[in-house]
Amino acid sequence: MQAYAWRGRNQHGHVITGVIDAENDDSVAEQLIASGVTPVQISIKGSSLSAPRMDWWNALLAGPVSDEDLLLFSRQMYALQRAGVPILRSFAGLQASTVKPSLAALLADLRAGLDQGRDLATTMTRHPSVFSAFFVAMVRVGEMTGRLTEVFKRLGEHLEFEMDVRARIKQALRYPAMVMIAMGAALVVINLFVLPAFANVFKGFNAELPLMTRVLLGFSDLTVRWWPMLLAASVAVVWSVRAWVATPTGRYRWDRMKLRLPVAGPIILKATLARFARSFALASASGVPISQAMTVVAQTVDNAFIGQRIEQMRDGVERGESISRCAAATGVFTPVVLQMIAVGEETGELDALLVEIALMYERETDYAIKGLSAAIEPLLLLVIGGMVLVLALGVFLPLWSMGQAASGRGG
After folding, report:
1. 3-class SS at 22?
2. 330 in a structural domain
3. 14 lies in which domain range?
4. Assigned domain for 301 exists
5. 6 forms bridges with which residues in the sheet?
6. pLDDT in tens, 41-50
7. Contact 277, 231 (CB under 8 A)
8. Around 110, how many Cα atoms within 13 Å sit in the side-chain half-sphere?
9. Which of 6, 163, 177, 394 has the fewest CB neighbours in a 10 Å radius?
10. Nearest-5° Cα angle at 164, 87 to 60
11. pLDDT given at position 283
């Protein structure tokens, strides 16, 4: 995108000039004609004016726009819109107050898009790595219905819940991960340094190493000799799995498998359904038709398996079936939730009951995450016990055999 200097005549015949960002001169002409200006002259002025100038070092250090930045942006826009501040002035104030270069560049581009006559949702689509499809769809609905202030409030609550769930899961998995890393490091050190020393000592006694020690030494020798091939094979496996997951079939099967995991599966399912209920309630309350709302929500639940079930619900609704019947056919909702959906349809309070469903799933997710560490502890103890058993058989049995060999030599 480049900056173009233009000169033209308005509806009264007066000559006016200005500078505008566009992809080419045809785009400049289209924008001017749409705004009631007849272009007379268009020329390239230079690089785009949308983003602030940064040198290469600051551009390198400037991190991407994070979820925390997006949450803060949603809350600030809600406060500014509620106070009646014009949207262009809101973006100008946020751009002037932010200290993060990448966020300032994003706000400048959004402001430039609004200056050029685009709506906010269309401008946001130019930044898919920052604004999700659901975020853009909700902003578009807010602009169409005049409820943009409420939309920013709901989006802030939605982002806060998502970040809270991720933070709780990371906190619950931190201790088990540290234990597994420590045990893995201990295995590597013993396998590469301790056991080979035992092997050299046993050679002096002409004694045979125990089976477990020979297995560990064989694995150690294989790792030392063939580590480049093992590393390449590991990289190839990881790349193949990632490429498979990137396909529609692979993503569907991977997401379905995640829901069947022993400990994490129920948590993922509840968090996904809470996201669905919250998003569906927000879209429905904003005036989006049910079928269109389900289409948008299916793309934003971040699970291909659940997304396909939601699309099945949409197809059933389009055929004239009730939402409760379509939800029951998916097989992912509990009877209590199905009953709440049915009551919501009968009373016309579906939006409110969807919010209650979201709160219920969020509470269950919260309880499950709090008990995640307790649920992982038995599995962690089994893994640690297995590692300790392997180390004991691989290290202490050679010591015992060494003592017997030394006693035999002494006799």
Report:
1. strand
2. yes
3. 2-47
4. yes
5. 18, 42
6. 888 776 555 4
7. no
8. 27
9. 177
10. 65
11. 75
Element (H, E) at 23: none
pLDDT tens digits, one per residue of 161-193: 778 878 877 887 787 788 888 877 877 777 777
Within 10 angstroms of residue 130's Cβ, the number of other Cβ atoms is 18
Are 263 and 377 in contact by the 8 Å Cβ rule? The answer is no
Listed residue (398, 151, 395, 179) closest to 296, CA to CA: 151
Asked, for residue 172, whether it belongs to a domain, the answer is no
Same domain, 38 and 76: no
Distances (CA, A) of 142 to 120, 135, 148, 154: 10, 11, 4, 11
Dihedral sign for Cα 260, 338, 359, 273, please: positive
What number of helices (H) and strands (E) belong to the chain? Answer: 18, 3
pLDDT in tens, 344-391: 888 888 888 888 888 888 888 888 877 777 777 787 788 888 877 877
Q: Which residues pair with 20 in a beta bridge?
A: 4
Which structure tokens are listed for 9?
Answer: 């005549």
DSSP assignment of 95-118 equals HHH---HHHHHHHHHHHHHHHTT-
Q: What are phi and psi of 193, to 5 degrees?
A: -120, -40
Does residue 294 form part of some domain?
yes
Amino acid letter, residue 98: T
Q: Provide, for the chain, the percentages of residues in helix, strand and coil under a 3-state DSSP scheme, each rounded to the nearest 5.
A: 75, 5, 20
**The model scores a pTM over 0.70:** no
For residue 130, which amino acid is it?
V
CA dist 350 and 104 (Å) reads: 39
Q: Answer yes or no: do 33 and 69 share one domain.
A: no
Residue 244 DSSP SS3 = helix
Helix (H) or strand (E) holding 153: helix 148-189
pLDDT the model gives residue 235? 94
Question: Would the CA dihedral through 285, 286, 290, 295 be positive or negative?
Answer: negative
Report which of 66, 57, 131, 69 is spatially closest to residue 95, judged by C-alpha positions. 69
Residue 409 pLDDT greater than 60, yes or no: no
pLDDT at 410 over 50: no
* Count of C-beta atoms within a 10 Å radius of residue 122: 15
**Nearest in space to 23 (alpha carbons), one of 4, 45, 49:** 4
